[in-house]
């Protein structure tokens, strides 16, 4: 899950107050295996989405091979400005800001974290 929020940068221009407001409008995950995933939302946990663990989501990516990968998330920001107490005015385009790269270790395992077996507890992890 990526995290970004509305940010306002304030200052003075020509002796008058000026502000620029940046609002997150999109997210792009860049994977070192060449894949990209884009979303209008930052993603969320399976629990928050009301999904079972390991369910596909709008921000999921499946690697073809085990290994070490790098993932970078870029947040697309829309910008607006106001000067001297005026209303907000939009600025055309978006600004992409990349977060720090994260290392991901991908492996293949058999899930054994179950309470009882999958016949007795079909809702358990790994079932």
From TrEMBL:
Xref: PROSITE patterns: PKD
SUPFAM superfamilies tied to this protein: PKD domain
Pfam families reported for this sequence: PKD
Ranges where the PKD domain occurs: 23-76
Descriptive protein name: PKD domain-containing protein
Organism: Agromyces lapidis
């Amino acid at each position: 899950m990526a995290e970004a929020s509305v940010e306002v940068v304030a200052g003075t221009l020509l002796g008058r107050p000026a502000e620029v407001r940046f609002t997150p409008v999109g997210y792009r995950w860049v994977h070192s295996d060449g894949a990209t995933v884009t979303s209008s939302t930052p993603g969320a946990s399976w629990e928050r989405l009301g999904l079972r663990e390991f369910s596909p989501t709008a921000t999921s990516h499946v690697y073809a091979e085990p290994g070490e990968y790098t993932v970078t998330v870029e947040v697309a920001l829309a910008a607006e400005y106001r000067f001297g107490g005026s209303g907000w005015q939009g600025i055309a385009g978006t600004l992409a800001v990349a977060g720090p790269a994260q290392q991901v270790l991908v492996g293949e395992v058999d899930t054994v974290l179950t309470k009882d077996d999958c016949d007795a507890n079909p809702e358990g992890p790994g079932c």
